[in-house]
């Protein structure tokens, strides 16, 4: 058994082998690997006794599940109402241009995945961008340029004013 | 640790009666010196994102380094969100109540040396009143807090949410102990009925009536029956539930246990959106502690009543805030709603009678049981009793969480507490109720904020998000935003919602491009009516509200897009042009450096200009310019 299958197997044992455990199991798999592979999906569906199609139906219904590998760094631009009013959409477009990738996609070199989220509930700091689960409040194109640079070259100083998401 | 040692330890903590609880409370309070300074650092998501974890770490080490005598060593507490998010990180020194804002780690040493050791104030960290420029020393004197009535939020910002002794010291679980020892389940239901509490999740259904019909359903169907917390809070722009779960998780839990006692439920669920990791963490800790103290689990406070609960993480679907969709999601399915000809109190989770209430509703229950339904009914206005927590965001000076009695005028919230729009102009509109609500224009600023008055104005309470807009916000764009959001979030099961919302959004897309005609406005109205009348669930039937209210109050702005190809607010990309004011431009070149298409040219230290032919209207120049030299028409 591969390491992955072993981890998934042990993790799943903590949850009842019932359909109601499917979502949490998929969440655990995604937390560990960043996405849900076909094999992982099969293991999960067998454990909770639902057809594989049903497992896919669940995984594709909820926005937070992803079926493709993610990049090394995950950038999420908040598009809650407050962020929208303060230019969130412009930030998405700017990041799309800088990274040469569409929202929802991963750069060819697998370094960055760009996503939008509906609201992280930090509306006072709008617009907010989260990079690898660190919030960047009052984000601007210029600030994000610096953040991208610091990720490309980690020797650069860490950005000011960030905190754990 | 061995199992028996663990069992012994948890046995030692276990409370067996109301007396036990009171004794423990007294012990905790006796140990405290009321004069001992307490440094409280806000650890709400907003402050954390602004670096408050670094601030509390710096304060801790400054305190250690100061070598203050053990007797006066102040405690540092990290609390949930204190609500004044736009001024974070917040630090309050109690008992004096000195309020510091926008604190940085480098301020820590000075705070310890000056305020804690010498009793002086660090003036530059005080809040400055924008109206008269006066610095304000105490938390309670700041207008943002002064005009509020903090009932549900009374603990938040004061207690450490990860320490149950703080909760117990402030009176937590008193209501539960009171109910279990002196009240019958029926009496609990009666108090809730007397209180007039209406569900804080949006629709405002009377909570007492919901519980009563659940009891009737249980009589018919028998048990099991479930109680569920709706912590999905999918409304973009709303974060009151997040704050309550993070800052006072025991209040939600106590409310849920009281509900379970009233209805005879032994199992509960907390459905919390996965985007709120801190809320999930704090609720998990709270549940573990409550179990150890015998306040959750088997034979609670030796009353013979047993109840336990667990957390389900949501997976990012707005529609799962809808009751029937939420239940199917807990069951492990795609969150498709079903028509509600049978109500959830009769057939909810696994087809059993289920009471689902929102986070804020549950957090109100202990207060009502403690102080009585009559006390609660006196707050607010008839038919909308109690207080409501709002998240005030957008173009407003004091962004944050606001709790006021129901029925206060909108202007009190936006202008008096929120401090109005930056720059001092009147607000253009306030969107209340999130994507399902509507826009209330400035002319209606005296509208009382309660369930029925908001509905009358074409909007709704919703979960309590208030998004303030100024004259730089375009109503067509806002309408498009909400429609696109709801279109993406629709489960797609029913046609009015799936196709109707897409068509409405297409029409607004055309408007934003200067296309379309007045006839399209009629189409929007008739589509709205059709969707309202025929959608399967509330996501669809309320979706047209933002468009309908903006059409009602801002029709001219829609017409400007259609007939004159103008976006008066300067938002819709295809209808605007950027230019640089040569008077204001200093030639700092920062816009030219940021421009992704290189359409800004000019000599250093001389006014620059935009080549409008090349410009892609991304707006970065305007965001970058520090001199307000970039204009948009």
Automatic annotation (TrEMBL), chain A:
Top-rank lineage group of the source organism: Bacteria
Matches recorded under Pfam families: 2Fe-2S_thioredx
Annotated residues for binding of [2Fe-2S] cluster: 78, 83, 119, 123
Transmembrane residue ranges: none
Keyword Cell membrane: no
GO function terms (MF aspect): 2 iron, 2 sulfur cluster binding; metal ion binding; oxidoreductase activity
Co-factor(s): [2Fe-2S] cluster
Known EC number: 1.6.99.5
SUPFAM superfamilies the record matches: Thioredoxin-like
InterPro entries: NADP_DH_HndA-like, NuoE-like, NuoE_dom, NuoE_N, Thioredoxin-like_sf
UniProt keyword list: 2Fe-2S, Iron, Iron-sulfur, Metal-binding, Oxidoreductase
UniProt remark on cofactor binding: Binds 1 [2Fe-2S] cluster.
Top-level EC class: oxidoreductase
Family: Belongs to the complex I 24 kDa subunit family.
UniProt-recorded name of the protein: NADH-quinone oxidoreductase subunit E
Gene source species: Desulfotignum phosphitoxidans DSM 13687
Gene that this sequence comes from: nuoE1
């Amino acid at each position: 058994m591969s390491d992955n299958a072993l981890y998934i197997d042990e993790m799943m044992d903590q949850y009842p082998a019932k359909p109601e455990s499917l979502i949490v199991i998929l969440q655990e798999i995604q937390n560990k690997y960043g996405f849900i592979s076909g094999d992982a999906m099969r293991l999960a569906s067998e454990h909770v006794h639902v057809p594989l199609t049903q497992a896919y139906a669940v995984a594709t219904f909820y926005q937070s599940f992803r079926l493709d590998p993610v990049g090394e760094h995950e950038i999420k631009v908040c598009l809650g109402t407050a962020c929208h009013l303060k230019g969130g959409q412009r930030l998405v477009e700017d990041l799309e241009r800088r990274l040469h990738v569409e929202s929802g996609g991963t750069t060819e070199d697998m370094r960055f995945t760009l996503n939008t989220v509906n609201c992280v509930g930090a509306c006072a700091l709008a617009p907010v961008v989260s990079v690898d689960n660190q919030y960047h409040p009052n984000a601007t194109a210029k600030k994000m340029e610096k953040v991208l640079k610091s990720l490309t070259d980690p020797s650069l100083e860490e950005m000011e004013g960030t905190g754990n998401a | 640790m061995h199992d028996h040692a663990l069992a012994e330890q948890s046995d030692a903590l276990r409370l067996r009666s109301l007396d036990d609880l009171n004794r423990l409370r007294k012990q905790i309070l006796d140990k405290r010196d009321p004069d001992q300074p307490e440094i409280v650092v806000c650890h709400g998501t907003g402050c954390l994102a602004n670096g408050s974890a670094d601030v509390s770490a710096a304060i801790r080490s400054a305190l250690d380094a100061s070598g203050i005598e053990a007797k006066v060593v102040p405690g540092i507490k990290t609390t949930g969100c204190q609500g004044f998010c736009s001024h974070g990180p917040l630090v309050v020194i109690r008992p004096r109540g000195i309020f510091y804002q926008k604190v940085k780690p480098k301020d820590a040493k000075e705070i310890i040396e000056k305020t804690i050791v010498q009793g002086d104030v660090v003036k530059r960290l005080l809040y400055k009143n924008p109206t008269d420029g006066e610095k304000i020393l105490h938390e309670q004197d700041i207008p943002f807090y002064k005009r509020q009535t903090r009932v549900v939020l009374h603990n938040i910002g004061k207690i450490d949410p990860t320490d149950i002794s703080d909760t117990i010291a402030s009176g937590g679980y008193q209501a539960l102990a009171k109910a279990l020892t002196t009240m019958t389940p029926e009496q609990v239901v009666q108090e809730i009925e007397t209180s007039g509490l209406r569900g804080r999740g949006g629709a405002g259904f009377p909570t007492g009536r919901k519980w009563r019909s659940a009891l009737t359903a249980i009589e018919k169907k028998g048990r099991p029956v479930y109680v569920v917390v709706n912590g999905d809070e999918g409304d973009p722009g709303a974060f009151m539930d997040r704050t309550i779960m993070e800052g006072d998780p025991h209040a939600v839990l106590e409310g849920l246990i009281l509900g379970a006692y009233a209805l005879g439920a032994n199992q509960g669920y907390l459905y919390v959106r996965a985007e709120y990791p801190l809320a999930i963490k704090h609720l998990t800790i709270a549940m573990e502690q409550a179990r150890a103290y015998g306040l959750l689990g088997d034979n609670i406070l030796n009353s013979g009543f047993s109840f336990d609960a667990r957390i389900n993480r949501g997976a990012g679907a707005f529609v799962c805030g809808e009751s029937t969709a939420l239940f199917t999601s807990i069951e492990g399915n795609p969150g498709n709603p079903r028509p509600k000809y049978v109500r959830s109190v009769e057939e909810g989770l696994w087809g059993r009678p289920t009471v689902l209430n929102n986070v804020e509703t549950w957090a109100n229950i202990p207060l009502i049981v403690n102080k009585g339904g009559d006390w609660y009914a006196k707050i607010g206005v008839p038919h909308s009793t109690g207080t409501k927590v709002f998240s005030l965001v957008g173009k407003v000076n004091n962004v944050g969480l606001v709790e006021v009695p129901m029925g206060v005028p909108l202007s009190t919230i936006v202008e008096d507490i929120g401090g109005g729009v930056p720059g001092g102009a009147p607000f253009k509109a306030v969107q209340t109720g999130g994507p399902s609500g509507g826009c209330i224009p400035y002319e209606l600023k005296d509208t009382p904020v309660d369930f029925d008055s908001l509905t009358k104005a074409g909007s709704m309470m919703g979960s309590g998000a208030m998004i303030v807009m100024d004259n730089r916000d375009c109503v067509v764009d806002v309408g498009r935003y909400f429609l696109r959001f709801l279109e993406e979030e629709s489960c797609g099961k029913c046609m009015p919602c799936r196709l109707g919302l897409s068509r409405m959004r297409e029409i607004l897309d055309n408007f934003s491009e200067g296309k379309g005609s007045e006839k399209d406005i009629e189409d929007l109205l008739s589509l709205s009516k059709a969707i309202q009348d025929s959608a399967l669930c509330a996501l669809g039937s309320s979706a047209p509200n933002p468009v309908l209210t903006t059409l009602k109050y801002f029709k001219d702005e829609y017409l400007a897009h259609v007939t004159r190809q103008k976006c008066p607010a300067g938002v819709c990309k295809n209808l605007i042009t950027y230019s640089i004011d040569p008077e204001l431009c200093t030639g700092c070149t920062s816009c030219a450096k940021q421009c992704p298409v290189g359409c800004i040219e000019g000599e250093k230290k001389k006014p620059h200009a935009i080549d409008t032919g090349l410009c892609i209207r991304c707006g970065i120049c305007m965001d970058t310019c520090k001199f307000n030299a970039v204009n948009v028409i």
